[in-house]
C-alpha cells in the first residue's frame, strides 16, 4: 500500500475514533456518578470492556469507510456519516442528558442506519460490509443493555 493510501486510511480511522472521543466527554463524568447508581441487567459487562471494544469497532469502521471512499461511493459515504452521527449523539443523550429512553430511540435509528450502511457497503465492497458485522452485533447487544437499563430504572 502506498504511503498516501496509508495516510488516508489512518485519517478515516481517526475520524471514526473521534466519535468515541466525543462520546467519552459525556460518558466519563457520568460513570462514577449517575450511571453507577442505576440498576443494570444481569448481562451488563464490566466497565473496562467498553473502551477496548469501541476502540476496535471504530477502527474497523474506519477501514470499511476507507474501502468505500476508494471506490468513490458518495451515497454510501453519506449514509455512513449519518450513522456515525447517531452513534456519537447516543452517548450525549444517554450519559450527558441521562435519558435512557431517548437514547434507546436514537439507538433504534442507529441500528437501522447501520443495516442500511451495511447493505450499501456490501454492494460496493464485500470486505467493507463484513467489517461492520461486529459493529451491528455490538450495537444489538447495546440495545438490550439500553432497553434493560431504561426499564429497570423507570421509577427512579
Describe, in plain words, how this protein is organized in 3D.
The protein is mainly α. It has helices at residues 3-31, 50-70, 74-96, 100-124, 126-131, 133-152. It has a single domain, classed as Up-down Bundle (Ferritin), CATH 1.20.1260. The termini are far apart. 31% of the residues are buried.
Query: What overall form do the CA principal axes indicate?
Result: elongated
CATH C-level name: Mainly Alpha
CATH topology-level name: Ferritin
Helix and strand pattern: HHHHHH
Can you tell me the CATH architecture? Up-down Bundle
Please, how many domains?
Answer: 1
Mean pLDDT, nearest integer? 95
Topology of this protein?
Elements: H1 3-31, H2 50-70, H3 74-96, H4 100-124, H5 126-131, H6 133-152
Give a nutshell description of this structure:
By secondary structure, the protein is mostly helical. It contains six helices and no strands. The radius of gyration is 16 Å and the shape is elongated.
Q: Can you tag this structure with a few keywords?
A:
156 residues; elongated; mainly alpha; Ferritin; 0% strand; 6 helices
Amino acid at each position: 500500500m502506498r504511503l498516501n493510501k496509508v495516510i488516508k486510511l489512518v485519517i478515516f480511522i481517526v475520524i471514526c475514533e473521534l466519535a468515541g472521543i466525543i462520546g467519552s466527554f459525556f460518558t466519563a463524568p457520568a460513570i462514577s456518578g449517575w450511571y453507577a447508581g442505576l440498576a443494570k441487567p444481569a448481562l451488563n459487562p464490566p466497565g473496562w470492556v467498553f473502551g477496548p471494544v469501541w476502540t476496535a469497532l471504530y477502527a474497523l469502521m474506519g477501514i470499511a469507510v476507507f474501502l468505500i471512499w476508494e471506490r468513490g461511493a458518495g451515497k454510501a459515504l453519506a449514509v455512513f456519516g449519518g450513522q456515525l452521527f447517531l452513534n456519537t449523539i447516543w452517548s450525549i443523550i444517554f450519559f450527558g442528558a441521562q435519558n435512557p429512553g431517548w437514547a434507546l430511540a436514537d439507538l433504534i435509528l442507529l441500528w437501522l442506519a447501520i443495516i442500511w450502511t451495511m447493505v450499501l457497503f456490501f454492494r460496493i465492497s464485500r470486505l467493507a460490509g463484513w467489517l461492520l458485522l461486529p459493529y451491528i452485533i455490538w450495537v444489538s447487544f447495546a440495545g438490550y443493555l439500553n432497553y434493560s437499563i431504561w426499564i429497570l430504572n423507570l421509577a427512579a
